[in-house]
Write a structure and sequence with these properties.
The chain is an alpha+beta fold and 366 residues long. It has two domains: 82 residues, Helix Hairpins (Orthogonal Bundle), CATH 1.10.287; 250 residues, Cathepsin B, Chain A, CATH 3.90.70. The chain is built from nine helices and eleven strands. The strands form two sheets. Strands 1, 2, 5, 6, 7, 8, 9, 10 and 11 form a nine-stranded mixed sheet that branches. A two-stranded antiparallel sheet has the order 3-4.
Length: 366
């Protein structure tokens, strides 16, 4: 008689736990879905439920049954990718995000956009800075130098958001005024080319490079306010730049050493930095500190480095726990309210490989 009673008790506990988990998922309206179940079979058995929750969460509708079924197959593959990413990156949380119905190629084409270029060999190098007195934690958001998280939409214009974010911070340091600047001006008007790569030019939604954007801004005289030249997420319109409405101007820009202490020193002294990164783990990222065991150094996404710190994650292979704080351009519904944390000290995902800093002219904006 004891065995059936134990079985009933176990079943009751399991059912109660399932309700708690379901209620927790339903109640986390401000977070992305966090359902990463233990094994692939359970993933696929519950895929229809997760897909239904995904469509509701992110307002997805599909024009035909064929498109719906196609996206469902991609979604199931991405459930397995999220599970794989969770194993490779245990200090972060991976799962269903707003990109879960996109193939990796679609995700790359629509939401990345950093041209795979080297920094020019003749680019100005940032001077070596002292590092002995660097604070253990630093975040430019706490000092008023970072605008709100923006959204590039389905346009490969990440490079423009990275460059604009750096200039917004530099302008704040120069003037004390935080101004949201126009990415659309770069998308429409910037066709600057890399001096060492023939045909490698900034191309709106087709990708670009942050140092090219700084060079354009220097030649054009500066950037307009976002409210005067608002973002559309399209690159087929005419250039509407009005030089009389310039809000911030570039004084100079330079590339920063691969040394992480120098990157930190430049961040603290010069403001947020434009950074390239490999975004392979970002499609499934929900939160935590991303520190994958394996990540390529091929840079395909432009982001903004705004700070660094240390957090409560402890992969056995690292005795220290430092991380970079990255502002992304996929809206606040992605990651940690639009931000990404990636471990610092090992050039993870190439985050130290393409770093540039910009200085602003001291002017008051219109």
């Amino acid at each position: 008689m004891a065995t059936p009673s134990l079985f009933f008790l176990f079943s009751l506990l399991l059912f109660s736990a399932t309700l708690v988990i379901a209620n927790r998922i339903d109640s986390e309206d401000d977070l992305l879905i966090r359902q990463v179940v233990p094994d692939a079979e359970e993933h696929l058995l519950n895929a229809e439920h997760h897909f239904s929750a995904f469509k509701t969460k992110f307002g997805r509708t599909y024009a035909t049954k064929e498109e719906h079924d196609y996206r469902f197959r991609i979604f199931k593959n991405n459930l397995l990718r999220a599970k794989s990413h969770q194993k490779l990156d245990p200090s972060a949380v991976h799962g269903v995000t707003k990109f879960s119905d996109l193939t990796p190629a679609e995700f790359s084409r629509q939401f990345l956009g950093l041209k795979p270029l080297r920094l020019p060999s003749d680019a100005q190098k940032a001077p070596i800075l002292p590092t002995s007195d660097l604070p253990s934690d630093f975040d430019w958001r706490d000092h008023g130098a970072v605008t709100g998280v923006k959204n590039q939409g389905s346009c490969g214009s990440c490079w423009s958001f990275s460059a604009v974010g750096a200039l917004e911070g530099a302008h704040f340091l120069s003037t004390g005024e935080l101004v949201s600047l126009s990415e659309q001006q770069l998308v429409d008007c910037d066709h600057e080319c890399d001096p060492e790569e023939r045909g490698a030019c900034d191309a709106g939604c087709g990708g670009g490079l942050m140092t090219n954007a700084f060079e354009y801004s220097l030649k054009a005289g500066g950037l307009m306010r976002e409210k005067d030249y608002p973002y559309t997420g399209r690159d087929r319109g005419p250039c509407k730049f009005d030089k009389s409405s310039i809000a911030a101007s570039v004084a100079n820009f330079s590339v920063v050493s691969l040394d992480e202490e120098q990157i930190a020193a430049n961040l603290v002294k010069n403001g947020p930095l434009a950074v390239g990164i490999n975004a392979i783990f970002m499609q499934t990222y929900i939160g935590g500190v991303s520190c994958p065991y394996i990540c390529g150094k091929h840079l395909d996404h432009g982001v903004l480095l705004v700070g660094y710190g240390a957090g409560a994650y402890a992969p056995i292979r690292f005795k220290e726990k430092p991380f970079w704080i990255i502002k992304n351009s996929w809206g606040e519904s992605w990651g940690e309210k639009g931000y990404y944390k990636i471990c610092r000290g090992h050039n993870v995902c190439g985050v130290d490989s393409m770093v540039s800093t910009v200085a602003a002219i001291h002017t008051s904006s219109h």
